């Protein structure tokens, strides 16, 4: 177990190092001067120079890379160029939207996918299976932003059950916060649930063909009991992989849904920062997201080990 | 909508307590949606119009200010005297004005604000407004004297800009996140990415605002904006980004649609130094190849006024010169032939993100193709546009709306990105600066409009409109936008 974890940790550190270099280079290469952008078309050259100096943009690239990485390591993410406020605070605030939204959507996705996947696998080849597979095909095909707009038209404009967007915040209680995240979470969850359900079904069907399942059936276990006690656990590895990927996607990739529901999440922060050439925010947030994704993968690796004893003794 | 109902209930409850329950209370809070969120809250150190859209006149005030019709009226200065030679302005400040932190606003603050804006390390995006100031001196706490190096007919106008508002030295440190001004509303909260909240300033020196509180919500996606209006999550959307949906709001009795004029001359900016665009015949051909109404209908869904020069049509000195660039593709072809381009030519058309540019660009490209001019379209982000087009001057044609008020003076700057260099025009602008006789000024401005129109410096397209969609019961919203502002000081709910 220990060497396995050690190996995973090492690859985690190398990935982070490489990612920081790639992110910094790509962002710096993008054309556009943050100071000129902030001051607009009537600005005088000396004003732009003064602002560049204030922002520290007059230093060399390497020096800026080092101070960025150094700051990150000591927990100081620096100041946003445009907002002039600490990036850590901005990210912290946005996380209170993005993280609950991702978890909410993932929860919904799992809640929908597990029963449907199990049902489809149990009903393999029968009408129930065909119906579930047809529905998931549709779920994958529908773009989530379009689905989001349909949700808004029905539940916000026509029925008035939810507001059309925006985030109420957590100050008025958990309920009002969750309520404003409900439509976005559903829009995000549906395609994910469809994918997860299909993965669940095929993983189950594969394990159901294994020898030990036949043995279990042969010793007299019911179909349902074999499914629950033997097949499900062994089918979990591919399902966990997908859940890990989905969580990363939901954290970083909710950007379009955040636009549709004008939610102040991380995706919108990055999007705005890119258009405003708030380079330091782009670098720091992307780095954080990379860190989160790599961490999630690391945790998924650990989860594999927990589910599959063979991985523990290996390596 | 639990929040809104909750807020309403609270306000109603308060009102009931006051009136003994005899009358139902009028609504006194307002939620206004804007497309762009301010990057920070200091109007004196950024070009972002979004800052003024929230704070101008609501939170910050200058010596003078824009009224809704674009005229300049007294602000923090109640009156002023101008010396005979026009080089010295003595401002008399209103008495009893306080900042939102309770400290009083006096001549020292005015001196601080103006000196800060014109100082060496100033980050003011409109530093040119203060260029002529040689000295600001405090005469007494309510009198301040500003000396200029030469007479400047637009000085009072300059002082009305959002970039010239009066700030206090005590609170300047945190102005970007906690703006402290003298206006009828004070800043209360900013949830970045979502909203800014203002509350009524109980100690306001002038006429207090009718609204108790105002919330600015930022919705960048046009479809989301439409949904938020339809679901009545927001009470008004200033500069509504989806003009294609305006008829639907007009037909709905719950809403009112106000279409006003802005200071935004939308032009097909032309690189006057890049061949063959340096040839006036070629530029004239382009002007005649463009069907302005088709662009307004196609790109702006019919909202906008055609222009034939760089001047706002609602201005009293405006000259209608659209006839100079009347749509006439045959004439355009003939002019191109005269210039030696029977078979047309090829140039670049670089488009910034706004829809007027992206949609308008496609239409213009098609219209130019019809007379033989091929354009290679590239879509740029603003930061790229600033770098390549505006500063690098690496372009043939571009489309942009010049939203600064009264900015015809940019044609007197030969290093400006369209690189128009006409000494006669430059002399005219210099003379205009020191001219104070209204009739002469008016004639000079009209002369200036004619010169650039007949030189076909740029393809003059249309004046950008500002459509506002609002709840039908709201009164007092600005119709036109003489400067970028959402002045809520006169806004109220009808019973």
Low-confidence stretches of chain A: none
Oligomer: heterodimer
- The class by helix and strand makeup of chain A works out as mainly alpha
Which two chains share the most extensive interface?
Answer: A-B, 54 and 49 residues
Q: Could you estimate the helical fraction of the residues of chain B in percent?
A: 25-40%
Question: Can you walk me through this structure?
Answer:
The complex is a heterodimer of chains A (315) and B (495). Helices cover 78% and strands 0% of the residues of chain A. In chain A, helix 12 packs antiparallel against helix 13. Chain A has 315 residues and is mainly alpha-helical. Chain A is globular, with a radius of gyration of 24 Å. Chain B is an alpha+beta fold and 495 residues long. In chain B, 28% of the residues lie in helices and 23% in strands. In chain B, strands 1, 8, 9, 10, 11, 12, 13, 14, 15, 16 and 17 form an eleven-stranded mixed beta sheet that branches. In chain B, strand 4 and strand 5 form a beta hairpin. The N terminus of chain B is likely disordered. Classes of the chains: A mainly alpha (315), B alpha+beta (495). At the A-B interface, helix 2, helix 3, helix 5, helix 7 and helix 12 of A face helix 1, helix 5 and helix 11 of B.
Considering the chains and any ligands shown, give keywords for the structure.
heterodimer, A: 315 residues, mainly alpha, 78% helix, globular, B: 495 residues, alpha+beta, eleven-stranded mixed β-sheet, four-stranded antiparallel β-sheet, 13 helices, 23% strand
